[in-house]
Amino acid sequence: MTQQDTDEQINDGNDGFVVDTEDCEARELAHRERGTARPITVVGNPVLHKECKDVTEFDEKLAALIDDMFASQKAAEGVGLAANQIGVDLKVFVYDCPDDDGVRHTGVVVNPVLEELPADQRHLDESNEGCLSVPTAYAELGRPDYAVVSGQDAQGNPIKVRGTGYFARCLQHETDHLYGYLYIDRLSKRDRKDALRQMEEGTPRYETVPNA
Ligand SMILES: [Zn+2]
């Protein structure tokens, strides 16, 4: 995302919500062509189980990290990726994910905070969820079907992102990562155990970081 794009995105009278549905193909491609895919950390790696550090420098290094994250997300066929999933202890996630209406959303959120929904807007959606850091496992998990995340873009401008359906699930899942939580941490003991068993039995289709 260029500075110019960003300015357009936040000044378009969209209630401060970023427009992340335009030029998805071109933006995603540009990021991943500049970046390098890195192996994915898996459950048990300490970087996944603690809160990541806030981003304070909105510089070239951050831009390069975001490019690598898009490249890694694509290589692993993910719809969202948090920085600690490639071993980087910083609050950044990227996404490329369809919503309830099949509309594609592509973007990045730095220092995300999930907004609390009023009780009357909390409708739980029970759907299957998976995670690149728990390869080959899936489990049903109830989550609100609408989510709003506030944070910053790659240049440090304040942004808000909202989503429905699968994309709402993605926004919650990725924000959780950056606070040290995996979706399996939200499962019952029994379902968590089952997910870990699925992981033991499967073979990921992408490169992972072996746990020490
Ligand atoms: Zn995940």
UniProtKB/TrEMBL annotation:
Active site: 174
Reported cofactor(s): Fe(2+)
UniProt KW keywords: Hydrolase, Iron, Metal-binding, Protein biosynthesis
Enzyme Commission identifier(s): 3.5.1.88
Pfam families: Pep_deformylase
UniProt: Fe cation binding residues: 131, 173, 177
Catalyzed reactions: N-terminal N-formyl-L-methionyl-[peptide] + H2O = N-terminal L-methionyl-[peptide] + formate
Binding note for cofactor: Binds 1 Fe(2+) ion.
Function summary: Removes the formyl group from the N-terminal Met of newly synthesized proteins. Requires at least a dipeptide for an efficient rate of reaction. N-terminal L-methionine is a prerequisite for activity but the enzyme has broad specificity at other positions.
Family affiliation: Belongs to the polypeptide deformylase family.
Protein name (record): Peptide deformylase
